[in-house]
Amino acid sequence: QVQLVESGGGLVQAGGSLRLSCAASGRTCSSYVMGWFRKAPGKEREVVAAIRPGGGSTESADSVKGRFTISRDHAKNTVYLRMNSLLPEDTAVYYCAAAFTDWTAAQVSRPRSYAYWGQGTQVTVSS
After folding, report:
1. What is the mean pLDDT of the chain?
2. DSSP states of 88-127 as a string?
């Protein structure tokens, strides 16, 4: 069992930056694929970025490539999402999730691949 708690969301102006954190407890998250998803009002939950268990390899949605970076700190059992050059369309609730799954683009981008989810943190980008 893994418990995930996100933090770091808030209100920021367009062009600004935020760093989201996802602290894991219960079990080490180092064996899991870790992902960040987001859900905006009226839209489906979508993958933002994912990182494989050993770190190093990552996947990002086209809409955030070059702006968002996912990383993990095994010692702190924490995963981060650094978000730069934020746009109003990045406004959403951001969720951290953990999956015990194969590392393929199809698997890591599907919400149903993930067994554990945090409660979410709101990110609002004003224009």
Report:
1. 95
2. GGG-EEEEEEEE-----HHHHT-GGG--EE---EEEEEE-
